[in-house]
Amino acid sequence: MPRFALANIQGNILRAYTHPLASFAFVHLDDAERGRAWLAELRTRVTTAEPWARKPPWTVNIAFTHAGLRALGCTDRLLDSFSSEFRAGMAARAELLGDLDDSAPGEWEEGFGTGAIHAMVSLYGLDRAALAAAEAWLSGLIERHGGLRLAARQNAARLPGGIEHFGYADGMGQPGIEARGLQSLPGDGSPMPGGVWRDLQAGEFLLGHHDEEGVLTPAPRPDVLARDGTYLVYRKLRQDVSAFRNFVQGQGERFPGGPRALGAKLVGRWPDGTPLELSPHRPDPGLATDPARNNAFRYAADPRGFYCPVGSHIRRANPRDGLPFGAQLVDRHRLIRRGIAYGDVLPDGAADDGQDRGLLFICLQADIGPQFEFVQSQWLNDGNLFHLGEDRDPLLGGHGKMIVQGAPPYFVHPLPRVVTTRAGEYLFIPSLAALEFLSDRVF
Amino acid sequence: MSNVAGQAYSLTVLTPVLPDREPALRASLQQLNEGRRSLFEQLGDTHLVRLVLVDQLVYEGPPQLRDTLTSRYLLFTAVFDGALEPFLNRLCRRMGPVIDSVWSHCVGFPGTRDPGKAITYFRHNQIDATFFYAAYPDASVAQVLDALTLRERFTSFALQAQDMQPTARQAAFEATFPSSSRPR
After folding, report:
1. Which residues of B touch A383 (CB under 8 A)?
2. Nearest CA to CA, how far is B62 from chain A (Å)?
């Protein structure tokens, strides 16, 4: 029995949408009063976390940057109560996040990281017609109210087979959250003795609830603004698919097991999603497509990384019981991932077509610093906690080496740059009551 | 003695900040941060130095109480090889102007013009550790730096030698790391 006020929580937080298409509208507010009037109307259409009798053809959700909250007319006192990372914005955190050179904020798409983006309206659609209807509704709303404009738009579409552009099944391994009213999948929670997985405290992902430490995560004030809200991290990650394929093919010829095995060692799963930890020598389609099994694994029995390398992508992104003290060093750094692919598929064997494709990485958490930024800077962009020196994630790192543990070990070197950050923002997803508070000028 | 682990010593000094001097202290601390190398490197044998401005230390846990310190504090921690007295000597004699720029904002600091008085000030405000978990209880700074250099060289060798035949790899290893130069 869920104990959340589901009507107060925006959708796609506790439970992922499965709509295949999406359109993200990045809005700039020129006038606070008209912005609030626009929000007052928009919020009546916001999709909540309440269960659906029938899946709606299109959904609406909204999040704000710190600059956006200021543009709505929030007082300094209110603005200062948000977390320091959110106030600084993602562009200011570039060095910590590894957004350097081609990924530096100075190279990002127009408007991102400059304070010009105020709000992100997320529209998901069941099909093209539904998404078009959603976009038309939003355009109409913007035009009627005036005082705001579309600064950028980003379309997205899930790839057939639930894969991302490098060809790997994506989206597994979401945190199990207590009292959601949903049965969590094995492997999603915190690994406990006896093969049990414990759901995580809601406060890791939703403000105003108790977190894994048993206290309320630091949250903005007043309570109506914070409660049932969360922070959203948005990163447009361009993937150089042909560079990745060429690299895996080239290195894979020297790798014992060949290119497909090498690719699996980089990721931690076979392309179909079979976890290396459960099936280190070959994919297992029955296992891969069974949600009760495809995420039910641990690392403590494989401390040397002979099955799933210690530095592989999924083991870095969520070490489970692979760090000391059970899962205590991991439980506070979990992320809800709601990313979606963008751009057309590059067919197998096709040469680089220069097209923009990749992943809109989206994660949700109650505290950006210890969650997203920690995972990015300590687990992905560095190897120290895993006794891997300065080695970085093989997909995101872009240079250096990766060790595929074994007897003998194999060094994957040099790692190519295959992912570039093209845009990013830190946003806050207000609850429905908070949206009312923001639009009705109660402050 | 709880401040010692192997050859490493952990020094912790807590000094109250003079009223209203927090902004000036922050500025002094910021200046220390400029440049890629630490100013404290000149002391030698020093593993780690940390300076923290302890602002209000507001207690935020359950039950919801607000509890603060009566003043702000400057926390100075250092981990170095060897004994305390020689370290404090080096600190107050070699880094006089830097020490003055920071601790002049703290209560009762006598300045480093008379290094002996400054040393006494630090000893007076020292807090003993209850438990010191040392990163390198049995390796000096020089040994750690040598080991890092060696690891870099070895990694470079391992990457180059990956595709060699065993005899060629053996020969390359002997050439790169001659027996005479290997650490004991």
Report:
1. none
2. 7
| B159–A401 CB contact, under 8 Å | yes
Nearest to A4 by CA among A239, A286, A188, A201: A201
CB atoms within 10 A of CB B84: 18
Name which of B122, B48, B38 is nearest B85 in CA terms: B122
Cα A81 off chain centre by: 24
Please tell me what DSSP assigns to residue A379. I
Residue B50 in contact with partner chain A when CB distance is under 8 A: no
Of the partner residues A215, A389, A411, the one whose CB lies closest to the CB of residue B159:
A411
Which ipTM did the prediction report? 0.78
User: What CA–CA distances, in Å, run from A283 to A246, A269, A275, A393, B38?
Assistant: 21, 8, 8, 22, 51
Residue B184 CB neighbour total at 10 angstroms: 2
Distance CA B3, CA B25 (A): 27
Q: In whole angstroms, what is the distance from residue A6 CA to residue B112 CA? A: 63
Q: What is the DSSP letter of A187?
A: T
Determine contact, residues B106/B20, Cβ cutoff 8 Å.
Answer: no
Asked if A24 and A121 touch (Cβ cutoff 8 Å), the reply is yes
Exposure on the CB side of residue A19, measured as CA atoms within 13 A: 25
Residue A402 sits at φ, ψ, to 5 deg, of -130, 140
CB A197 within 8 A of CB A186: yes
A327, pLDDT greater than 50: yes
How far is it, in rounded angstroms, from Cα A56 to Cα A58? Answer: 5
pLDDT single digits (tens) A245-302: 999 999 999 999 999 999 999 999 999 999 999 999 999 999 999 999 999 999 999 9
Distance of CA B103 to the CA centre of its chain: 17
Mean pLDDT of B8-23: 95
- The reply to whether A411 touches chain B by the CB within 8 Å rule is yes
For residues B56 and B68, give the distance between their C-alpha atoms in angstroms, rounded to a whole number. Answer: 6
Residues 6+ apart with CB under 8 A from B183: B146, B150
Distance, CA of B122 to CA of B103 (rounded, Å)? 10
Length of chain B: 184
Lowest-confidence pick of A31-35, A62-66, B32-36? B32-36
Task: State whether residue A30 is helix, strand or coil.
Answer: coil
Q: Cβ of A160 under 8 Å from any chain B Cβ?
A: no
Q: Are A411 and B158 an interchain contact pair (Cβ–Cβ within 8 Å)?
A: yes
Residue A1 confidence (pLDDT) above 60:
no
Three-state DSSP class for A194? helix
